[in-house]
Amino acid sequence: MREEWGELESKGGELIYEVNLEISPRQKAAFDDWLSGHVQALLEQPGFLSARILRNDEQAEDRWARRTVSYRLRDRQALDDYIAGPAEAMRADGLCRFGGSMRASRRTLRLVAEISALGNCENCHGVLFDRHCQRCGQKIDAPHPPPA
């Protein structure tokens, strides 16, 4: 599997855009109400495929709540287009609403391997979920166990 990592990276492939957020205790409820709609708006951007909103159960030292949004993007170009286009306005919306009650940091992660308990597709090596390959859609008769 490791020899395929370089192949995945060289293709440009999927990218994870991670936004780590901290919010003051007094704004937490309003922030959480706003966040889902904000994420949905980002998913309307070309190349944004999905998102997960995660709660970190460990508070910051100053008791601020932590959230992470993990966006799955088609490729680096999708992120570059977003940053060159609507990113500034989208970020300004959060700052306007929550100002100093919100802190954000961002990072990008390149997908080098994805492993499933069901194994990987024999056709394209994509991750298997249920009875279909996530990447190519190939139907499988029975899940293949991951290699030992």
UniProtKB/TrEMBL annotation:
It holds the Pfam family DUF4286. It comes from the Bacteria. InterPro entries: Dimeric_a/b-barrel, DUF4286. This is DUF4286 family protein.
